[in-house]
Amino acid sequence: MSALRLGAVGLSLIAVCYGFARFAYGLFLPAFDERFGLGGAMAGAIASSSYLAYCVAIVAATAATPRWGARTVAVLAGVAAAVGTATIAAAPNVIVLAIGVVIAGSSTGLASPPLAHAVARHVTADRVDRVQTVVNSGTGLGVMVSGPIALASGADWAMAWYVFAATAVVVTVWVALTIPPNSGQAERRALVPTPVLAAGSLPLFVASAMMGAGSAAIWTFGRDVAVGGGLSPTASTVMWIVLGAAGLLGALTGDLASRAGLARAWTAAMLVLAAATAVFGAVGGPSLIATAAVFGAVYLALTGLVLLWGIRVYPDHPAFGVGAPFLLIAAGQALGSPAIGALSDGFTVPVAFGAAALTLVIGAAIRPTTS
Predict the structure, then answer these.
(1) Are 71 and 181 in contact (CB under 8 A)?
(2) Distance (Å, rounded) from C-alpha 114 to C-alpha 58?
(3) Could you give the CA distance from residue 110 to residue 323 in angstroms, rounded to a whole number?
(4) Which of 28, 163, 284, 291 has its CB surrounded by the most CB atoms within 10 Å?
(5) What are 148-151's contacts with CB under 8 Å, separation 24+?
(6) What is the pLDDT of residues 160-195, one digit of tens each?
(7) Total number of domains in the chain
(8) CATH code of the domain covering residue 129
(9) What are the φ/ψ torsions at residue 195 (nearest 5 degrees)?
(10) Which residues are within 8 A (CB) of 162 and not within 5 positions of it... i.e. 6 or more apart?
(11) To the nearest 10°, the Cα dihedral for 86, 87, 88, 89?
(12) Is residue 370 one of the residues assigned to a domain?
């Protein structure tokens, strides 16, 4: 199995599931608000439902991957992305919109464990960290591409979501043709019971949850805040594109971790993410674009570090090593989104984003115990 082919198809599936099916909700939040009359609390609750769907799906994918094989579960992720985005496109009311967001959100939970598993099983040891983080950086690619699609669709936001759905179908077919099927003996070894609390796992889980809670501010409300902070709809979409493009730097996470070490890289990145979140909530105008770029680059780097951290804690169970901490990231986002929305409604945006930033600062102090 070519590392290049596996990396390309994995990056594309992550781009579709994370960049389109999950995080494009924040990009289109102003349009959804105008069409369906969402307030901050309702918008946060719908975002939270996506994260909860992710939590359920990632548990299922983590358990199913060693049994059904990476290809089957990855194909299911693509199908969920296609169905969810198509449902959002066709939504006539808030209820159908929320159902589509839930289905779309589940695709991300289904995607990460099988891809991490496939890379761990089919890429040589000297290249595995780099390929893992390249695949993970697909989120940045998807976020970046979603922006031009949004601009091209103009006021017809449903058309953009139909494009997302069609792209998901194409990528799903590619996944089915590329990822190797269940490989028998190697998969049976993966059925050995996984120790849920392995050495070093507790810091991993707590830090992941805090990262998720703090990052929910910009992912859920970033574009809405940008529009309210003086950016035009077009400029705020450009900001989203820049955020995604900067996220592609997450592909360098493997090299960063090998040079600086996981612990130092984690603490530094979390503090930068906290600063970007606090600044984003406090300023307005064009400076938001630069702040979003910092956020995008550092967020994707952090998810790459979580991925590597989890695989080091669970080297014999890569699907679980990625699935468990990514579950905690989503759980943090599920709790963070409505809380940040409520703080924004009850107080001010700077207060809400400041609380998110404080969560990230605390999380920065929880460091990996692995190298």
Answers:
(1) yes
(2) 10
(3) 9
(4) 291
(5) 148/241, 150/24, 150/27, 150/28, 150/237, 150/240, 151/234, 151/237
(6) 999 999 999 999 999 999 988 875 444 444 445 556
(7) 1
(8) 1.20.1250.20
(9) -70, 115
(10) 85, 86, 89
(11) 50
(12) no
